[in-house]
From TrEMBL, chain A:
<feature type="compositionally biased region" description="Basic and acidic residues">
    <location>
        <begin position="281"/>
        <end position="290"/>
    </location>
</feature>
<feature type="transmembrane region" description="Helical">
    <location>
        <begin position="18"/>
        <end position="37"/>
    </location>
</feature>
<protein>
    <recommendedName>
        <fullName>NADH-quinone oxidoreductase subunit J</fullName>
        <ecNumber>7.1.1.-</ecNumber>
    </recommendedName>
</protein>
<dbReference type="Pfam" id="PF00499">
    <property type="entry name" value="Oxidored_q3"/>
</dbReference>
<keyword id="KW-1133">Transmembrane helix</keyword>
<feature type="transmembrane region" description="Helical">
    <location>
        <begin position="44"/>
        <end position="61"/>
    </location>
</feature>
<keyword id="KW-0812">Transmembrane</keyword>
<feature type="compositionally biased region" description="Low complexity">
    <location>
        <begin position="269"/>
        <end position="280"/>
    </location>
</feature>
<dbReference type="GO" id="GO:0048038">
    <property type="term" value="F:quinone binding"/>
</dbReference>
Automatic annotation (TrEMBL), chain B:
<keyword id="KW-1133">Transmembrane helix</keyword>
<keyword id="KW-0874">Quinone</keyword>
<dbReference type="GO" id="GO:0050136">
    <property type="term" value="F:NADH dehydrogenase (quinone) (non-electrogenic) activity"/>
</dbReference>
<dbReference type="InterPro" id="IPR039428">
    <property type="entry name" value="NUOK/Mnh_C1-like"/>
</dbReference>
<feature type="transmembrane region" description="Helical">
    <location>
        <begin position="28"/>
        <end position="48"/>
    </location>
</feature>
<comment type="function">
    <text>NDH-1 shuttles electrons from NADH, via FMN and iron-sulfur (Fe-S) centers, to quinones in the respiratory chain. The immediate electron acceptor for the enzyme in this species is believed to be a menaquinone. Couples the redox reaction to proton translocation (for every two electrons transferred, four hydrogen ions are translocated across the cytoplasmic membrane), and thus conserves the redox energy in a proton gradient.</text>
</comment>
<keyword id="KW-0472">Membrane</keyword>
<dbReference type="GO" id="GO:0048038">
    <property type="term" value="F:quinone binding"/>
</dbReference>
<dbReference type="InterPro" id="IPR001133">
    <property type="entry name" value="NADH_UbQ_OxRdtase_chain4L/K"/>
</dbReference>
Length: 290, 99
């Protein structure tokens, strides 16, 4: 009689069963995808899938507060931190295929299957007829958070205070490990050391390179600086656009330097004859080429 | 179906995480596998809380989350500083602690 009652009490509603059979495979697929994905960013996204479905499972299992904390803290904060670090580590994020210990993957898989078999066997044998006392009383009227808070601040007050110490220690540890002192001796040269090194001849020239031209028509990097005699200062040309700049701007350089003859004084006087002849010449040329 | 199924699912997730820790070579992915194991334990705690009709399991899962967050912060900072000195995030490359 009691066994029948227990079995009846242990049954969950159909909706929850559907939720479980949808979310359980999704969570498992996410976990497997995380292991098998070569790219670490893909692993992180698979893990996000697992964590989201676990969060919904918490909500279904009468733990709404933990469900939301799972989604906000784990998927929202922790996994984003993982992604940030992955992006910082960058191209090294994909895994190496080389097996350092021979047969390690095989034995790890065997071990994992063994662990899974042991736990699943033990749980399924020992916990089949357990009567389930649901949390309806504790959660009545949305009191889940209230009761959790009461429990944390009375019964579990000391562990809660300990977590504050833990969090502060973690923050300090992250700052100490992540801090990089760029002004330490030997890390970066000060201005004085740099000047001395320049005049000692460790660099090609003691002064900085000349900037874009004083007489130039544009402040583009591609515009070369001009020397007093009008020639282009070769150091002012960027190494990247060195080959193109002098050719592209040769006309402008000439006009700025004054070596080119100025505009024709008779350019605006009406001399229609000349232009018409040149026009006909041009058309003839194009026709010939056709 | 009974709530025991949740325990079975969590056992499977835990073993997948354990295999991942053993198999993967990238330190960050190893960390993610540890997170998966912690999540599986959280699912167990929530299920036990429901089976027993008490909220203590949920409080414990909450503390597990706090510890996991602290662990992730410190662990990722360590991984970053190792990467800075060794230019690698592989667990095989870092066999000395300081240099």
């Amino acid at each position: 009689m009691s066994a029948v009652l227990a079995a009846a009490a242990a049954e969950v509603s159909t909706g929850e069963a559907i939720a479980f059979w949808v979310l359980g495979p999704v969570a498992l697929a996410g976990a497997l995808g995380m292991i098998f994905a070569r790219n670490a960013v893909h692993s992180a996204l698979w893990l996000v899938l697992t964590m989201l479905s676990l969060g919904v499972m918490y909500m279904v299992q009468q733990a709404p507060f933990l469900g939301f904390v799972q989604i906000i803290v784990y998927t929202g904060a922790v996994m984003m931190l993982f992604l940030f670090v992955l992006m910082l580590v960058g191209r090294d994020s994909s895994d190496s295929v080389v097996e350092v210990l021979r047969g390690q993957r095989l034995w790890a898989t065997v071990l994992g299957i063994g662990i899974a078999g042991l736990i699943v066997g033990a749980v399924s044998r020992s916990l089949t007829d357990v009567p389930v006392e649901n949390l309806q009383q504790q959660n009545a009227g949305g009191a889940n958070v209230n009761n959790l808070g009461k429990s944390i601040f009375t019964e579990y007050l000391f562990p809660f205070e300990l977590t504050s110490a833990l969090l502060i220690t973690a923050a300090m540890g992250a700052m100490v490990l992540g801090y990089l002192n760029r002004h330490e001796k030997g890390m970066k040269r000060t201005q004085k050391e740099l000047v001395e090194a320049r005049f000692r001849g460790e660099y090609e020239r003691p002064s900085p390179l000349p900037g874009p031209g004083v007489f130039a028509t544009a402040n583009s990097v591609a515009t070369p600086a001009l020397l007093p005699d009008g020639s282009v200062a070769p150091e002012s040309l960027s190494r990247l656009i060195d080959s193109t700049a002098s050719e592209t701007f040769s006309d402008e350089i000439k006009s700025v330097a004054g070596t080119e003859p100025g505009p024709d004084a008779h350019a605006l006087t009406p001399s229609t004859k000349d232009t018409s002849t040149t026009d006909t010449k041009n058309t003839e040329d194009t026709e010939e080429t056709r | 179906m009974t709530p025991t199924y949740y325990l079975l699912l969590s056992a499977l997730l835990f073993s997948i995480g354990a295999v991942g820790v053993l198999v993967r070579r990238n330190a960050i992915v190893v960390f993610m596998c540890i997170e998966l194991m912690l999540n599986a334990v959280n699912l167990t705690l929530v299920t036990f809380s429901r089976i027993n009709g008490k909220l203590d399991g949920q409080v414990m899962a909450f503390f597990v989350m706090v510890v996991a967050a602290a662990e992730v912060v410190v662990g990722l900072a360590i991984i970053m500083s190792i990467f800075r000195t060794r230019r690698s995030a592989s667990v095989d490359d870092s066999n000395l602690l300081k240099y």
